[in-house]
Every structure is written in C-alpha cells, then in structure tokens.
Amino acid sequence: MRKYAIVTLFAAAIPAYAADPAWIPDARQVASSVPPRLLAVLTEEIGKSGPEGAIAVCSEKAPAMAKAASEATGWNIRRVSLRNRNPKAVPDAWERAALEEFDRRAAAGESPATLEKFAVVQENGRDVYRYMKALPVQELCVSCHGPANRLSPAVKAELLKRYPDDKGTGYTPGQIRGAMTIKKPA
C-alpha cells in the first residue's frame, strides 16, 4: 500500500511538471524580439548623429517598436526600470519585485542576460500571464546611461530636454538597466 501511495503521489506530480507553462516559449520569444532590433536602430543612429541623436530613437522609436510588436503578438510589451528615464517606464508592484529580485540574483553571481521571471497572476479577477526578461547594459548604452560625469555635454543637454526627471544614468556594462515586461490575459 505504501509503495502505491508513493507512485500515486509521483504520478500526480508529473502532470504539473510536464505542464510547465506552455506559454513560456512564446513569452521568451516575444520579450527577446524587440531589444536586438532596437540595438540595431540605435547603432545606426549613433553612426549618423552620435549618441545624442540616438536619444530620440529610444524616446520615440522604442515605444513604437513595442507597440507594433504588441499588436502583432497579442502581448502588451513595454520596458521598465527601477531607475527610469521615461516616466511611462515605472514598474508596477509585480515588475518592481521582479526587478529587485533580478538585482539580488545578479549580485549573487547570476548572469543578468539569463534573468527572467514569469507567473500567472490575478488582475481584476482574471488570470494574466506575466513575463519579464532583464535588460543588461551593453557597451553601446553607456554613452547615454553611463556615469553622469562621463556623458558628453550634447547628451546631457538632450537628456535634460527630453527627460528633466531622468534617473537612468550611472550604469556600467553588465548591470541591469531594466527589463522587457510582457503580459496578456490567460
């Protein structure tokens, strides 16, 4: 009888494990689709008009790219940060907890490039898929997100013009700048 109970418990656990959320591969793909395109556009713009010109890309094209990807995939896609530049990039409570967890895990030695969090949460009485993937600072990013005393006068002026309450500087390559966050009804 005891052997049967153990087998039954194990068998009961298999569907939960085997049913590891089927939506996760899609979420990973969607969350990973915007950053490489954005980096390509930023690299091109920096080549044309310097880092100060790329600020407009982050300000205008990045949200447009996220909106287009949202419309194409059915996921609500945005970027958030604990030290936001864009006032629309303030994390909600779930996102804040995930970002804080990413910082703790990175401090403990995990690679920021591998950090993700996912869950099914209740929002307004409905199940919602939530997924976040950390965005580590790339070398390219420090021209606008690096230590304030190392930013060019042109970058500082453009940031002040577009983001008077900017909190998005002081980073070094490899640190977590923020995250791609996506969600959709379950």
Structural description of this entry:
The structure is a single chain. By secondary structure, the chain is an alpha+beta fold. It has one domain (25-185). Helices cover 52% and strands 18% of the residues. It has helices spanning 2-18, 24-73, 93-107, 142-145, 153-162, and strands at residues 76-80, 116-123, 126-136, 176-185. Helix 2 (24-73) crosses helix 5 (153-162). The radius of gyration is 20 Å and the shape is globular. Mean pLDDT is 88; it is low at 1-19.
Please give a handful of descriptors for the protein shown.
5 helices, 186 residues, disordered N terminus
Low-confidence stretches: 1-19
Pattern of helices and strands: HHEHEEHHE
For the largest beta-sheet, the strand count, sense and barrel status come to:
4 strands, antiparallel
* Adjacency order of strands in the biggest sheet: 1-4-3-2
Instruction: Name the beta content range.
Output: 15-25%
The residue-averaged pLDDT reads: 88
Determine the number of helices (DSSP H or I, runs of at least 4 residues): 5
> How helix-rich are the residues, as a percent range?
40-55%
**Helix/strand/pairing class, anyone?**
alpha+beta
Our count of domains comes out at 1
Gross geometry: globular
Radius of gyration: 20 Å
Spell out the blueprint of helices and strands.
Blueprint: H1 2-18, H2 24-73, E1 76-80, H3 93-107, E2 116-123, E3 126-136, H4 142-145, H5 153-162, E4 176-185
Antiparallel strand pairs: 1-4, 2-3, 3-4
